[in-house]
Amino acid sequence: MRKQIIAGNWKMNTTYKEGLELLHTLKSNLEPITETEIVICPPFTHLDAAKNIVNNTEIKIGAQNCYEEESGAYTGEISCKMLQSIHCDYVIIGHSERRTYLRETNAQFNKKIKLAYAHNLIPIYCIGETLSERETNQTYTVLETQLREGLSEIALETNPIVIAYEPVWAIGTGKVATPDQAQDAHQFIRNTLKTLYSEAIAQTIQIQYGGSVKPENSTSLLNLPDIDGALIGGASLDPLAFTTIIKEALTLQRS
Ligand code: 13P
Questions:
Q1: Known catalytic residue at 87
Q2: Which segments of the chain are extended strands (E)?
Q3: Ligand 1: which residue has its CA nearest to atom 1?
Q4: 40: nearest Cα among 231, 172, 210, 217
């Protein structure tokens, strides 16, 4: 059975001091929980200290991005090797904010995923359609292309991955996908993974939902058959909200 995986994407929020305080609070709330996988993705500046704070707990640390080359003259970029050197566990790749604001492409994400594996990081690969793509019935085509191109020449038989379905129109808008819309997209993603790989692989991959997840809506989403967790933005900065969502996931995991 797939475990629920709940990740907090802090995005470009919190100073160093604020971030570490938040993490200490989360650690004391979440340390006893081991049945649900928990990943915290703070800004780059906090990662090393964050990893030290959660050392000896089950809480994992993820970066929000990495660069698509191994090393070299790429001013301002962070490599997977650097993330590995501070024992980072996960890396978010393909977030829609990078697709939209930084114009990053599936081909770049494909290179990043390959580098993540070369440096022992688990990618959280984000995919999702925009509102206009949904309204023009392109959701399946967009998701299929993002999967096929992003995962090109990647052997998921031997490499772990988490897929995050984040409909762009639901991110930071308070407009969450309905359970039917979310389950439909997740089922499509799992079927696509089956076509690209195999039934066995498709059944083991955790697919998170992301986009305006809050304690008020998390149970109805996490309860769906093809949803295996959440990638949470805004609510992950509120320790009470984030802890509540994880406890709800834990209850579902046990039931
Ligand atoms: P919100 O939860 O703030 O909508 O953000 C979702 C997201 O983009 C997580 O990566």
A1: no
A2: 5-9, 37-41, 60-63, 90-93, 122-127, 162-165, 206-210, 229-232
A3: 233
A4: 231
Of 5, 98, 166, best ligand 1 pocket probe by most atoms within 8 Å of the beta carbon: 166
Q: What pLDDT, on the 0 to 100 scale, is given for residue 253?
A: 83
DSSP assigned state of 3: P
Catalytic residue among 46, 166, 186, 248: 166
Q: Please state the pTM of the whole predicted model.
A: 0.98
- 3-class SS at 152? coil
Residue 46 catalytic?
no
Distance of CA 210 to the CA centre of its chain: 8
Dump pLDDT digits (tens) for 3-45. 999 999 999 999 999 999 999 999 999 988 889 999 999 999 9
The pLDDT tens digits for 55-84 are 999 999 999 999 999 999 999 999 999 999
pLDDT digits (tens, 9 = 90+) for 133-192: 999 999 999 999 999 999 999 999 999 999 999 999 999 888 889 999 999 999 999 999
Pocket around ligand 1 at a 6 A CB cut-off: 9, 95, 166, 171-172, 210-213, 231-235
